[in-house]
Write a structure and sequence with these properties.
Number of helices: 3
Structural class: alpha+beta
Number of strands: 4
Radius of gyration: 13 Å
Largest sheet: 4 strands, mixed
Helix content: 25-40%
Shape: globular
Order of helices and strands: EEEEHHH
Distance between the termini: 26 Å
Oligomer: single chain
Number of domains: 1
Length: 105
């Protein structure tokens, strides 16, 4: 596990599973399989801020929002930045979609 000074997150890579999409932030720790891009870390830093704002209640709030408005319609994902998180936006075609953790081009 390494600490990223720019975004104030601990980053734990090499995870085999137990996370959603490209990774999961729990408190101030980002759990993922591969080393993340700077854009993805910026996205995950917002999730860490959401954890700080809502405490453990963030788990319930996020899951409830995900059930009602999955993926790119989830307000917590929108706040974190859809493009930084690898979500397709209306301005991107499906061929331009970047998966979480892919390097910036």
């Amino acid at each position: 596990m390494a600490f990223d000074d720019e975004f104030g997150l601990y980053v734990s890579t090499g995870m085999r599973g137990g996370f959603a999409r490209g990774g999961t932030t729990v408190g101030g720790v980002f759990l993922t399989r591969n080393p993340p891009s700077r854009r993805l870390l910026r996205h995950e830093a917002v999730h860490a801020d959401q954890w700080a704002r809502h405490g453990l209640g963030f788990v319930v709030r996020y899951l409830w929002e995900e059930l009602r408005n999955p993926g790119s319609r989830n307000r917590f994902e929108m706040e974190a930045g859809l493009e930084d998180g690898g979500y397709r936006t209306s301005s991107q075609s499906s061929s331009q979609r970047r998966l979480p953790g892919q390097p910036d081009v």
